[in-house]
C-alpha cells in the first residue's frame, strides 16, 4: 500500500508505494481505510527534530485522520464500510492519572503512545488501531469534515480548560494557522463577537476573512502600538517568545491559554509580580482527553457554515505530493494541508 514514511533517526520523509499492509493482530483490532489525514504543526516539529517521536523504525506519521472500516477483529463492534474517525490517544487505564480520567498526564500512554507518533499512523492507505480508539460518525458528518475532528477535540479540551468564557469577553487569538482558525469558528459558534486575531502573515489573515465572522484582524505590530488589554488570550503559535510578548496584553484577572505546542527547548520570560498583581491565570492545554464525543457533537452542530475547507484555508494533496504540501505550509499560503487518499 502507499504510505508517507518518517525515519526518526535521519529525520527524513519518503513516499513508499509498497509499505506493508497492516494485518489484524488482536481480536479488538480495526483496520481503517484512510480517506483524509491531516498534517499537524506537531508533525512539522517532529520532522524538524524538535518534538519526540519513535526512532525504532521508519513509520507513517499522521494522528488526525478519518475513513471507513476495512476489516475488524472478531471481538470488534464495528462493521465493514462504517464511516469512522480515530482518536490517536488513549489511556493506559492503570496509573493514577488515567484512573482519574486525566490520561494526558500519563507517563506511558497519552501523548507517549500516540498513533502517528509512536505507532503507525494515518499517512497511509490503511492503518490498524484498537477499537476503543475508533468512533463511528453520524450520517450528517462527512469523512472530509471528520478530517478536522482530532484538532477540534483538542480545541474542545482547551475550551473546557479555559471556561468559563462568558460571551462579551474581550478575546485575543494569537496565530492564524489552522488551530487559530478553529478557535475562530469555535468562539463565533458559541456567540463570541469581541474577538481580535493577530497574525504576522497577512496571507493568513486573508484566509480568516473568508470565515466571515466580523472579528478584528491585525498584525502583531498593531498590538504592540495600541497596547489594548484582553480578558483572554489564546496563543496558537507554539513559539515561546510570542508568549513572552503577548502575556503583557492581559487585563487584571485575565487568562492566558497556551494552546500551541512549543518545542521543549523554547523559553519565555515573564514578570511574577505582574501575575500576582493582576491575578493572572496561565492555562496549559495538552492533547484531548476523552473529548472526541464533544468534538463530534461540534462538527454535527457547525456543519458547512464553519467546516468548509476552502474558507478554513485547508488544501488537500495526494500522499505523493507531500513536498508540495510542506512547501505551502512553510510559506503560509494555506492554513493546513490534508492528505486525501483515494
UniProtKB/TrEMBL annotation:
Its cofactor is Zn(2+). Belongs to the zinc-containing alcohol dehydrogenase family. Pfam families: ADH_N, ADH_zinc_N. Residues 27-138 form the Alcohol dehydrogenase-like N-terminal domain. It comes from Papilio xuthus (Asian swallowtail butterfly). This is L-threonine 3-dehydrogenase. The keyword Metal-binding applies. GO terms for molecular function: oxidoreductase activity; zinc ion binding.
